[in-house]
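Researcher: Let's continue the batch. This sequence belongs to CoA transferase subunit B, and it's 218 residues. Same format as the previous ones, please.
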Amino acid sequence: MALSREQIAMRVAQELKDGYYVNLGIGIPTLVANYVPAGMEVMLQSENGLLGMGQFPTEDELDADMINAGKQTVTAITGASIFDSAESFAMIRGGHVDLTVLGAFEVDINGNIASYMIPGKLIKGMGGAMDLVAGADNIIVTMTHASKHGESKLLPECTLPLTGKGCIKKVLTDLAFLEIKDSKFHLLERAPGVSVAEIVKLTAGELMVPEHVPEMQF
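Model: Same format as before. Here are the structure tokens for CoA transferase subunit B:
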């Protein structure tokens, strides 16, 4: 079975480390805030100027003025700080974020990412994605492995306008966890119940498959 959005977020949360400063992009990445391991101190950053995001609010906690970059209402943990977007992007551009989690339309074997524009469709703008991929060394892309038409999103070469070049090293899809190196996708883990053959079939870029591919654990 393919992973749900929540399961993708749960698997990403396993990549967090104590003391990390983490930027969560719009979409699936925002769900990671709900799955920070108990006892771990992580400061989640939103590019609109909040450092120290907590879980999504309950009805009693909801504050319409407390939002993330995707305009979703959020909470703030003890020790959080609020500042303007110029300071937020100074943090991002200065390389002070330990992990960035982004969504994408396409990723290719050279670590290129296309995440902000599909020609002919409504375009809201690239947001802070270009700054995030340029200012971070540790990036995890979350996405579906294929489009709703069954076309692979893991490609030999991106076809959409690029957000960044040569900046992506890890991709977590609804089917698999992969690393990009030596101009190839390397299969690290597969979703529970998903076969290696299915992943191979839906990966257009060159894919290296080890003899044993473990299932993800939650």
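Researcher: Any comment?
Model: The chain has a mean pLDDT of 93.
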